[in-house]
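Quick one: structure tokens for this chain, please?
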Amino acid sequence: MIHQTLTIKESEAVRQIRSAVMRYGKTPSIRELMFALGYRSPRSASVIINNLARKGVLRRKFDGKFQLVRAEDDVAHAQTIDVPLVGAAACGAPILAQENIEAMIPVSVQLAKAPYKYFLLKARGDSMDEKGIKDGDFVLVRQQSAAENGDIIVALIDNEATIKEFYKTSNAVILKPRSKNKTHQPIILTTNFQIQGIVAAAIPNF
């Protein structure tokens, strides 16, 4: 919760950070924020970031980058829960590791339903466009480690998060693309792999 009133410049910084998170799936760099706010020195943007961290809007991550903790008011929060937005790929680390979380995004409780836990992932490519998941969309994922045939899942394959349709046979798992682009091929695996969650909704990134 934000306990202190933001200045005009701080509020503008929050808008710019939130816009970058929703458009690119990550928070802007100090220099990018400097240009967005019309400053001539990165120090001015750094001061803004430090103030927002002190007021509870941002949080420093282990790698020195920052995470958007809260960008909405308490009235909106009453109908939402904060869902972590992670990068487009997990890069070998657990998807919900602290270093992968770019922001906490308020999501309607009608989408992110209790008692489950959720995360947001930015889709890349067109391998699931026939299921309404387009390149750049945000995918709301319900955390769980099991799936039924036909579920759209998120799995960690070759050190990256992949979104595919799940099918299991007696001795293999098949992850099927659902795309108009027929260059995409199914991924055939043994049963020894980890499901990160089930896709609950795709949110267009306008």
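The longest strand covers residues 160-168.
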